[in-house]
From TrEMBL:
Residues 51-194 form the Xaa-Pro dipeptidyl-peptidase-like domain. The lineage of its organism: Bacteria, Pseudomonadati, Pseudomonadota, Betaproteobacteria, Burkholderiales. Keywords: Hydrolase, Signal. Gene3D superfamilies: alpha/beta hydrolase (3.40.50.1820). GO terms for molecular function: carboxylic ester hydrolase activity. It comes from Rugamonas aquatica. This is Prolyl oligopeptidase family serine peptidase. Residues 1-25 form the signal peptide. It comes from the Bacteria. The keyword Signal applies.
Amino acid sequence: MTVQTRYRQGLAALLLAAACAAAHAGPLPVVDAGMGEQVIAIPARIAGADITLQTTIYKPPGDGPFPVLFMNHGKDGGEAHQQPRARYLVISREFVKRGYAVVIPMRKGFADSGGTYVNSHCQARENGEDQASSLYFAMAYVMKQPWADQQHVIIAGQSHGGLTAIAAGSHNISGVQGVINFAGGVNSRSHCDWQAALVDAFKAYGAVSTTPSIWFYGANDKHFGPKLAAEMYAAYTGAGGKAQLVAYGPFKRDAHGMSSSADGVAIWLPETMRFLQGVGMPTEIKYTIKDKR
């Protein structure tokens, strides 16, 4: 049995377990400052343990169904449970304005989610798959909700969440039209060649993925610089993966956080809108947001 087959069988089991546990005339409707923000606990069973995943959801007004963006967070330094709940207000605002629901699950061991984060940075491919396990439970839960459009889904992530998104996208999940990778990867201060492990991981993902993706890496990213980003991209596309690399220049002091900055919207939004159009996802602005909180 190949590694890819084991991954696909594991994914099927996870999803089964989770299932069981036009232009507008006049002014655009307004979304309140909180963008309908909710924080819920999604049940999950991971590695034999029953836990809940702290999950933030933003939705436009109305009943939907809405296209869905699943946004995956990175990892701060230190204890994962001390990491605050991710909100990604800049990204979420742009998608809610366009009629999307945005779902941001905190993965196992992070913030107020249950379980323990496992540091396996030197096994980058396995690490990405392990992180994606939490995402699958969030996806299974959300896709059962009447407000979610099951056929118009995007998976995105930043840093460690970018690796998670690429790993999940490699399983070619029904309804997932594309993947957005903001500076994705995982690094380690351990005595191992984590860069080579990361390149190998992207190669493995690219060999089985048919889901289109767009990648953003900046020239002064302190974690994953231009050389490593180019190597990951070459490995992924060389193995057959579909990806567009946006290798933009330096951004402030560290391009790694570009996607969370209001100043970064000018970099990622135009390219992302073109990408979304190309994969049949909506891009038209449908709502205004009251403020920038």
